[in-house]
Amino acid sequence: MIASLRGEVLEARSGYVVVAQGGLGLRVEVTAGYAAQARPGSQAFLHTSLVVREDSLTLFGFAEAEELEMFGLLTGVTGVGPRSALGVLSAVDPARIVAAVTAEDDKPFRAASGIGPKTAKQIVLSLTGKLGHLTHLSEAEAPALPAADLVGADVVTALAGLGYPEQQAVDAVQAARDAGAAAEQGPLLRAALALLQAPRGGGRP
User: Fold this and answer.
1) What's the rounded Cα separation, in Å, for the pair 69 and 82?
2) Is the residue at 168 inside a domain?
3) Could you tell me which of 26, 83, 117, 152 has the fewest CB atoms within 10 Å of its CB?
């Protein structure tokens, strides 16, 4: 079992990165937010899960241990495979998952690609009673945006992780949308970053 991976990022694409390891380049499936932030030449440390299938070996990686643990819990839900679980974590961070399950609210999970109403309800039912050790995670860790704007909130969280002030990140996300950026997390994050990094786009102070 490969529990973690540290190395130079050789390539970063939509949904995955390639990390140098012992002369090899290992492809690691990651959340949309992580893939959008990763840069070739940077160092990566990922908590990983190797999923073995009859015809494939797929490595999934996460920046935080809580994400990896949540990935394991999600893949234990009937109807949720590894890629669907990754999709959930791309749309809903662990803090929001804990809050949604505690509130018996399945709506946040419907924002994930491939998760319909029935599966969203199944996630809530299956995870109820299993997240007590994660109650230290709080919605306060995420920017205070409307609950319905899950993608926007995750993009703001990613921008805040890069060092941008919350309000500046919120403004950049809105400006990117006004300029016609795609609604998906990856393209929206790249568009907001481009605005923040532009000479007159309100980059870092």
Assistant:
1) 13
2) yes
3) 117
Same domain, 48 and 86: no
Separation between Cα atoms, residue 187 and residue 81, nearest integer Å: 24
- pLDDT, tens digit, 9 for 90 and up, residues 89-99: 988 888 889 88
State the residue range of the domain holding 110: 65-134
Tokens of 166: 């919350």
89 and 62 in contact (C-beta within 8 Å)? yes
Task: Give me the number of domains the chain comprises.
Answer: 3
CB-based contact 50:1 (threshold 8 Å) = yes
| Per-residue pLDDT tens over the stretch 54-101 | 888 999 999 999 999 999 999 999 999 999 999 999 888 888 898 889
Residues 154 and 190 reside in one and the same domain: yes
**Is the domain of 90 the same as that of 39?**
no
Domain co-membership, 157 together with 124: no
User: The domain spanning residue 88 has which CATH number?
Assistant: 1.10.150.20
**Residue 202 in domain:** no
For residue 136, count CB atoms less than 10 angstroms from its CB and return exposed for 0-12, middle for 13-18, buried for 19 or more. Answer: exposed
The answer to whether residue 11 scores a pLDDT higher than 90 is: yes
Q: Concatenated DSSP letters for 121-139?
A: HHHHHHHTTS-GGGTT--G
Residue 204 domain flag: no
pTM over the 0.70 mark: no
| Assigned token pair, 41 | 């030449």
